[in-house]
């Protein structure tokens, strides 16, 4: 089952973000800053929304959707971010269920596309995204932290 996140999910979402940052980048997150960041999404829907996946009545993962306006397409791209599935629930279709839910919501809202970024070494995730119909873009990602 996939459902919109609620305030009662904040601790789990923060915990999963900490786990994901460590698994993917060996990065330790500031937990107080992260807690405020999760709350900011729940408090301001314009920023996006979280979904939580449940398996056998237990919360086992989440993702964040944020929006990017495209003037070229006169519509929003929906970005998958902060995707996490608990190790014991991986390969059980949890992400696929969340992806399908987001795709349906995006179509109903008139979004123009779905996007995400993935670690270059995460070949399993890349294969999953291709199997879902996503295509690798020709863009590189750059950033400058402020």
| Domain module count | 1
Instruction: Tell me the structural class.
Output: alpha+beta
For this structure, what is the CATH class?
A: Alpha Beta
Question: Main beta sheet, described?
Answer: 5 strands, mixed
Order of helices and strands, N to C? EHHEEEHEH
CATH superfamily: Gcn5-related N-acetyltransferase (GNAT)
Give the number of helices. 4
How large is the share of residues in beta strands?
25-35%
Strand numbers in spatial order across the main sheet: 1-2-3-4-5
Low-confidence stretches: none
Mean pLDDT: 95
Please state the CA-atom Rg, rounded to the nearest Å: 15 Å
In total, the number of strands is 5
Corresponding CATH architecture: 3-Layer(aba) Sandwich
Give the overall shape, derived from the CA principal axes. globular
CATH fold-level name: Aminopeptidase
Helix content: 25-40%
Q: How many angstroms does the end-to-end distance come to? A: 38 Å
Protein name: GNAT family N-acetyltransferase
Domain N-acetyltransferase: 1-146
Pfam family, one: Acetyltransf_1
Organism: Dyella choica
């Amino acid at each position: 089952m996939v459902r919109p996140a609620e305030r009662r999910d904040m601790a789990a979402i923060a915990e999963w973000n900490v786990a994901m940052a460590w698994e993917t980048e060996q990065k330790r997150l500031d937990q107080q800053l992260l807690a405020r960041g999760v709350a900011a999404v729940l408090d301001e829907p314009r920023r996006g929304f979280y979904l939580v996946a449940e398996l056998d009545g237990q919360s086992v993962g989440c993702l964040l959707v944020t929006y990017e306006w495209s003037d070229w397409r006169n519509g929003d791209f929906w970005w998958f971010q902060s995707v996490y599935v608990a190790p014991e629930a991986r390969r059980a279709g949890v992400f696929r269920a969340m992806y399908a839910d987001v795709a349906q919501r995006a179509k109903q809202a008139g979004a123009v596309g779905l996007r995400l970024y993935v670690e270059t070494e995460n070949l399993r995730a890349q294969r999953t995204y291709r199997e879902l119909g996503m295509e690798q873009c020709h863009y590189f990602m750059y950033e400058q932290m402020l």
